[in-house]
Give the backbone structure.
Amino acid sequence: MNSCFLFDFDGVIVDSTEFIHQSFLHTFSMKNSNLPENFMQLITGKPVQECFTMFGVREADLPSFLELYRSFQKENMTRLVNVFPEVIDTLSFLKEKGFKTGIVTGRGKTSTNEILNYYNLTNYFDCIITPEDTLNYKPHPEPVLKALELLGGEATSSFFVGDSETDIQAGKAAGVKTIAAAYTAGTSLNALGPDYIIDSLKELKILAEK
C-alpha cells in the first residue's frame, strides 16, 4: 500500500501563533478596523482572505489589507516563526522509511515557500498544497485528496496531522487516518474523534513502524 504522511503547516510544522496574532493586529490597526477579542479562535485553519471577509472587510478593500498583512509577515518571519522540536528528525525518519510526505495548508503559497526555504525544510516534502491549488479549502476534502493524487497515495493507509477542526474534518472526509497535534491543540479536537492524538511529532515514528 502507498502510505503518505500529510501535514498542516502552521501549528504542526512551525510554531507561528504569535506571528499570525501580531500580523492580524498590525493589519487591522493600520486600517483603523476592529477585531473581535476571540479572533484567533475564529481564524484557525482558514485562509487569510476568508478571515478578512469574515471580519467585515469589503471586497474592494481586500488587496490593501492583504498587502499590509503580507508585508508585515515578510518583515517579521524570522523573528516570530520557529520550527517545532522533532520536526527535522521525524521527517528524516519518514523519508528514510520510504514514505511520501506533503503539506496541506491554508497559508498562501508564497509565504509557505518563504518559511520552508528559510528553515531549509523544502526538501523534506514531496508536495505542497496551498489555497491556490484547489477550488475548495479545508474542511472540504479536496486539498487532502489533491495531495494524495500527486503523491500516488492511498487514503486508507495514509495519515493527516492537524491542529484545527478543519484539518480533522478534511482528513475524515478524504478517508485518511487523522492525527490531532495536541502539542498545539491540547484537547480541543478530541470530540471530533481523531484516529490518533500525539504530544510530539516523534510519535509518528511509532505509527510508521506499524
Q: What stands out?
A: Residues 182 and 199 are 5 Å apart (CA to CA). The two ends are 13 Å apart (CA to CA).
